[in-house]
Amino acid sequence: MSANIDTKQLIACQQCDALYDKPELKQGQSVKCIRCGSTIAERKVDSIERSFNWSLAGLFFLVPAILLPIMGVTLAGQYHHASLLDCILVLIDRGFFMIAILVFLFAIAVPIVRLFGAFYITYSFKFNKLKPSLLHFLRAFHHLDNWAMLNVFMLGIVVSMYKLLDDTDLSVNMGLFAFILWLISSTMASAALDQDYIWQRLEDEFVD
Ligand SMILES: [Zn+2]
């Protein structure tokens, strides 16, 4: 026996798996699970606009975050500046290849891809340039979300490695501020992105 259930009209609580009829939400509204109280669905306010602006800001801070010195170090009485890129080169120079690769991947490459991803998605929605390929793109983007906060961890590793390798006084530089602003912008760009809304729009448009 099979009942015809339209799965598109159902929604499951992510925490406790309770099933509900999918609610029609207006901007700013959200619904909570009766059983466990966690948020089942929400429609974020001005999601596309806000995410677009944050990702633009993120792109703006990208270059200074990578190229400006994040630290000043005093070596043998001489003061040096080191950008994130310099730090990676130092790690390679000292033979820490794995750490250098990890730092490059998770502190630079993944955040850049995520930021461009958020920018591309919101740009496509903002200027009504929706394409079927966006569905594949969104799937890939979704997977990158799991690695979101690793760049903070990686920056920590870089700074402590540097401190260990060269036992010197550290001072904080402009690059670090740019890095933090870049981090905030890309985190906000992802947080503002209403993925459920975007999935729905794309499915309505391209999936029958
Ligand atoms: Zn629940």
Structure description:
- The relative contact order is 0.16.
- The longest helix has 30 residues, at 97-126.
- The chain has 208 residues and is of the alpha+beta class.
- The model has no long low-confidence stretch (mean pLDDT 85).
- The chain is elongated, with a radius of gyration of 22 Å.
- Strands 6-5-7 form a three-stranded antiparallel sheet.
- A hairpin with a 6-residue loop joins strand 3 and strand 4.
- The chain has helices at residues 47-67, 84-93, 97-126, 133-144, 150-165, 174-192, 195-206; strands spanning 10-12, 19-21, 30-32, 39-42, 69-75, 78-83, 170-172.
- Zinc ion is lined by residues 13, 15-16, 18, 33, 35-36, 38.
- Residues 13, 15-16, 18, 33, 35-36, 38 line the site of zinc ion.
Question: What key phrases describe this protein's structure?
Answer:
208 residues; alpha+beta; two-stranded antiparallel sheet; 7 strands; 58% helix; elongated; binds zinc ion
